[in-house]
Amino acid sequence: MTTTPTWEHSYQNLGAPYTSTANSERASKPEWMAWNNSLAESLNWPAAWTKSDEALKAFSGHGDLPGTKPSASVYAGHQFGQYNPQLGDGRAVLLGEWVLEDGKRYDIQLKGAGPTPYSRGGDGLSPVGPVVREYLLSEAMHRLGVPTTRALAAIATGDSVFRNDREPGAVMVRVADSHLRFGSIQYFAMTREGEGLSELVSYATHRHYQAMIEAKNATTPALQAEVLLEETVKRIASLVAHWQSLGFIHGVMNTDNMLLSGQTIDYGPCAFVDTYKADAKFSAIDAQGRYRLSNQPGIAHWNTSVLASCLLKILSNEEDKAIAFAQAVIDEFPRWYTEAYKARMAAKLGLDAFREDDTALLDNFLQTLETDSLDLTLAYRWLTHEAFEDSHHTPIHQLFKPSDDLLAWRTEWARRRAANKGPSDEINSRMAQANPVVIPRNHQVAASIAAAEVGDYGYLEQAFQRWQSPFEWADTDILWAAAPDASEKVTRTFCGT
Fold first, then answer.
1. What is the pLDDT of residue 440?
2. Fewer Cβ in 10 A, N or C end of the chain?
């Protein structure tokens, strides 16, 4: 327990097999693009480092903040289903773990800061576009209530990055409960044939599931592996259910992009659905639609099965017992996911609970949206106002026109709502807090990127501020809540690697 916030390096202290020393590349003309003051305050970030010249220099490769020890972590992963035995932080540098007074620790990492020992021939840099996207999306997801890594700052480097063309470069300062991934476990289980795996499992379990260790008296590596697997799978099931409820498409659900903490990470080609389509996809690198919207729960299930297979040698010396436990946990994923998803759908539809017959009601609603090309977020918000019967003080009727089929469906919905048990005010309140007014729409993110690429950060800040309160209406929402018109629609997103 610390008395004041300080840097620690517990993961780096595990030794050379887990991390390597790394240094940031010096930016030629760094400047602040964005600073997240609310996150800085929650971290008790020192005033001397708050959007200061010292912090700007440290985040852009011109020096180190006192107490930091920049490093990069190694991991492996299945990328689009194919195993890559060594990946690692190819364009990210971990400054260290920022530990608060209560003992809570956060990784603070620079993304796009230059090559590391794991860059595999790449430049380790990031264009402005991916930095702006992750800065905005991760913070918007946090405000939507989704477990996620967060963004402390975004910095323009003044240097060019070469991808398909010359692009301006940037660095993002990312904050996470940790950056330990499914791929971290994979590297030590599969690439190193188990060497160092037990130590990693113990470290990860203590870092993320200390309370469960104590509750289950998990003092042995096998018991700690049981805790790690079961709790991680539960969190991932809940996380993806949350994504699905919002129409969020991650775009690159490789195992190295799944965190053991259950947080969302790596907002490369991600996007939110506007016009609802069950098989929607946006990522330019996902040509086959492996990570399309409807496939995300199945991919998450598959990813957790990979994690389970990597823990077998730790779970038990007896193969049959290890397989039996791992299989039992993985077999629970569909139930955990379904329960989490149904709970969210009940809230979004303004129902007291999700009953057996409600599956048809929800399926008909989503099918109507897809058939009639209606906006997912606005449709749910329209329903919310129908429940409250108070839409006259909002622009919802200017923003959303229900189809005849949706109006017909509303009759069935109202009949089901009449059978709710419990206080209607509480049910309606849950509904309002489940259905955002605004989301980070793709065309608005694209506009933020386009402006930032020419040094204009005003729209980025406006978007950031509006998405801080996604469930409340604002005076400007005739613009911020609106679906894109035909000329604004974004059909492809890019990760910038």
1. 98
2. N
User: Which of 185, 233, 192 has its CA nearest to residue 209?
Assistant: 233
The three-point CA angle 71-72-78 to 5° equals 165
The distance of Cα 49 from the centroid of its chain, to the nearest Å, equals: 26
CA gap 186, 192 in Å, rounded: 9
Residue 74 · residue 17 · CB < 8 Å: yes
Distance from chain centroid for Cα 278: 20
> What would the DSSP string read from start to end of 349-396?
HT-SS--TTHHHHHHHHHHHHHHTT-BHHHHHHHHHHHHHT-GGGSSH
The yes-or-no answer on residue 256 being catalytic is yes
What tokens were used for 107? Answer: 């990784």
Closest CA to 17 of 208, 250, 198, 228: 198
C-beta atoms surrounding 230 within 10 Å: 20
Q: What is the mean pLDDT of residues 445-464?
A: 98
Strand, coil or helix: 230? helix
The partner residues of 6 in beta bridges, in order of sequence, read: 99
| Residue closest to 304 by CA, chosen among 254, 250, 233 | 233
- Does residue 330 lie within any of the structural domains? no
Residues with Cβ < 8 Å from 235, sequence gap 6 or more?
147, 261, 262
Q: Which long-range contacts (CB under 8 A, 24 or more apart) does 216-221 make?
A: 221/314
* CA separation for the pair 303, 297 (Å, rounded): 10
Q: Give the pLDDT confidence score for residue 292 in this predicted structure.
A: 97
In a domain, 397, yes or no: yes
Q: Which of these three, 129, 157, 181, is where a domain ends?
A: 181
| Number of domains the chain is built from | 2
What pLDDT was estimated at residue 63? 87
Options 177, 256, 352, 477, the catalytic residue: 256
C-alpha angle 324/330/336, rounded to 5°?
135
Would you give the distance in Å from CA 30 to the centre of its chain?
27
Structural domain contains residue 475: no
> Which H/E stretch holds residue 168?
strand 166-176
Average pLDDT, integer, range 461-485: 97
Q: Mean pLDDT across the chain, nearest whole number?
A: 96
Domain that holds residue 150: 6-181
CA distance 412 to 415: 5
Residue 126's DSSP bridge partners are: 170
Does 311 map to a domain? Answer: no
Over residues 449-456, mean pLDDT: 97
Instruction: Please state the pTM of the whole predicted model.
Output: 0.96
Nearest to 389 by CA among 351, 346, 425: 425
Is pLDDT of 1 > 60? no
